[in-house]
Amino acid sequence: MTTTILEKPNTMNKTAYRYSELANLLSGLMEVEELKGVKFALKVSKNIRLIRAELLELEEAAKPTEEFLALASEVQAIEADESKNDEVKKLEIERLESIEENKEHIKVRREQIAEFQKMMEDTTEISLFKLSESHLPLEITAKQLNNISLIIKE
User: Which one, out of 23, 39, 71, 78, has a CA that is 20 to 30 A from the CA of 134?
Assistant: First the structure.
């Protein structure tokens, strides 16, 4: 019987994590993904895939609308214009944001961000591959260890 990288061994138990914890853990795993060690690298890689799959729905929920992206692009263009001073830029951005249609796009985006922040505190159950201390690379730093501590076996 062949297994794929995303299959979990029968011995793994699901653990409850907040989505914010998984997002932080994903960031920590990505920081250490170039460290050497076959068993370490394999578990890091598997966990990255598992967590990305778990966070996919939240990632979709956080995507801004096309209209908001267009507005943000206009604001960035104003901010990047070196021919204008900061006061002129500020006035142009305020004018752009005061347009009724743009006010609605901004309101929708703020509501979307607030909902996303609530979702990040929700919990999910997931089985992650734990890392044994004996499989940790010698080059790993204390900061890196702290960032992946949720999956280190003691």
Answer: 23
Domain residues of the chain, as ranges?
Answer: 15-151
Amino acid identity of residue 140, one-letter, is I
Question: What's the length of the chain?
Answer: 154
pLDDT at residue 8, rounded to an integer: 52
Q: Where are the alpha helices (DSSP H) in 33-151?
A: 38-62, 66-80, 86-98, 100-120, 142-147
The enclosing H or E element of 24 equals helix 19-32
pTM of the model: 0.77
- DSSP secondary structure of 117-133: HHHHTSEEEE--PPBPG
Average of pLDDT values for 21-41? Answer: 96
Contact 49, 26 (CB under 8 A): no
